[in-house]
Amino acid sequence: MIKMVVFDMAGTTVDEDNVVYKTVQRAINEQGYDFTLEEVLEAGAGKEKLQAIKDVLALKGVQDEALAQVIFKNFAASLDEAYRTMPIKEQPGAGQLFQALKERKIFVVLNTGYSRPVAESLITKIGWQVGRDIDALVTATDVPRNRPHPDMIWFAMEQLGVPDATLVAKVGDSAIDIAEGINAGCLVNVGITTGAQTRQQLLSASPAAVIDNLLELLPLVITATATA
């Protein structure tokens, strides 16, 4: 039985045209590199953003904490400006799916590799409210360890009184989202092709399914609930 669904934000429930990874790419390349967006998505998708920068740099054998911190500072400033000025909207079907889950008394949780201030600014811009549209928001700055560790999911479970990860489903647009759910022990782990990574990249993480639209998740949750 599913009692809680944990959704990634950017690329999964939030449509922001991959601006976060385009901004990571630009901030790194401003330091003299030539990473492609595909390389940034492959190495950094779904991760806490300082770690994403470090992992992209590592593709060229660069391990430089001071450089990574400079890039992260520049990235954060550029992303803040982008999010203030660009249109941010929900992914198609997100609100409809949230409502359908809540009608079935299933908790709706957002989790993200963003910091809390960035995540809160995004849900405010879309018009979502914790306690009305979603039941909880968990961010990279709320827990000691980030994806692929399960801490964000376990933190959400503790907040909402969900006693066992076999009552949880996780959906995200990167392989590390799927790994996070598997590491947490979630009953259902689903990839979605609306964001950072391709179907093939998502399948490499061994999800239960890969979907192309959020509304495809509802029958998977209903089936898991009926057969549990």
Automatic annotation (TrEMBL):
GO biological process, one term: DNA repair
Pfam family, one: Hydrolase
One term under GO cellular component: cytosol
Keywords from the named record: Hydrolase
GO molecular function, one term: phosphoglycolate phosphatase activity
Highest taxon above the source species: Bacteria
PANTHER family linked to this entry: PHOSPHOGLYCOLATE PHOSPHATASE (PTHR43434), PHOSPHONOACETALDEHYDE HYDROLASE (PTHR43434:SF19)
UniProt protein name: Phosphonatase-like hydrolase
